[in-house]
Every structure is written in structure tokens, then in C-alpha cells.
Specification:
This protein is mainly beta. Helices cover 12% and strands 34% of the residues. The two termini are 40 Å apart.
């Protein structure tokens, strides 16, 4: 019983503290394309061949994943984001990217495309 009282007292003391605990929230990953066929936010980005399994090409290319669907990207190239075959490159790692643009004929046309580091 003493342990329970002690834990409750510690909890009350910690809750009454003026010190605020900062919690960094991870942004939501876009999982659905809106009926406007455009997106603006965070998506998964990687090589369409090496990591997303699109075998329509023998060459590596930049792609994004929204929900379960993978789209090739126009307006940004895989080589625009460093050495794709480096240890942390797009052919070896699935990254997060902050993007904006629209979808036409199952292709994502990027107005902006920036890899982001989310911990």
C-alpha cells in the first residue's frame, strides 16, 4: 500500500511542475489522394525499381508511394537527391519527402520535392 501512495505522490508532484515536456510529433504520411488529384505533404519516396518493385523500367527512377500505390515522379529526378546508390541513397533506403504536385495518368508531377529527415 505504501508503494501505491508513494507512486501517486510522485505522479502528482510531476504533474504540478511548471516544466513542460516537449514532444516532437511526426507529421502524418499522406495515404489518400484527394478528389482534386493533388497532394501537399509528406510521402514515402525511393527508387521505383529497387525499393518499390516497379519493373516497368530497367533503370532506376524516382517514385513516391501513397497508400499502397506507387507513382513515378516527373519534375524531379532520382539524381537530384544525391547518389542514389550510396548507403543512404534512394536505391537503398525509403525516405520521407515533402512534396506538392498533381497526378495525371498515374504519374506524379512534382511542383516541389524535398527529402526530409524525420526521426
Amino acid at each position: 500500500m505504501k508503494k501505491i501512495v508513494y507512486i501517486c505522490i510522485l505522479f502528482l508532484i510531476s504533474c504540478s511542475s511548471d516544466e513542460k515536456i516537449s514532444v516532437e510529433l511526426k507529421p502524418d504520411i499522406i495515404e489518400v489522394i484527394t478528389n482534386t488529384n493533388s497532394i501537399d505533404g509528406i510521402v514515402y519516396a525511393s527508387c521505383g525499381v529497387c525499393n518499390f518493385g516497379l519493373k516497368e523500367s530497367y533503370e532506376c527512377f524516382l517514385a513516391i508511394k501513397v497508400g499502397d500505390t506507387v507513382f513515378p515522379v516527373e519534375g524531379s529526378d532520382i539524381d537530384d537527391h544525391g547518389d542514389a546508390h550510396a548507403e543512404e541513397g534512394l536505391c537503398n533506403v525509403i525516405h520521407h519527402a515533402e512534396v506538392s504536385g498533381e497526378f495525371k495518368n498515374n504519374v506524379f508531377y512534382a511542383e516541389s520535392f524535398n527529402l526530409v529527415n524525420i526521426n
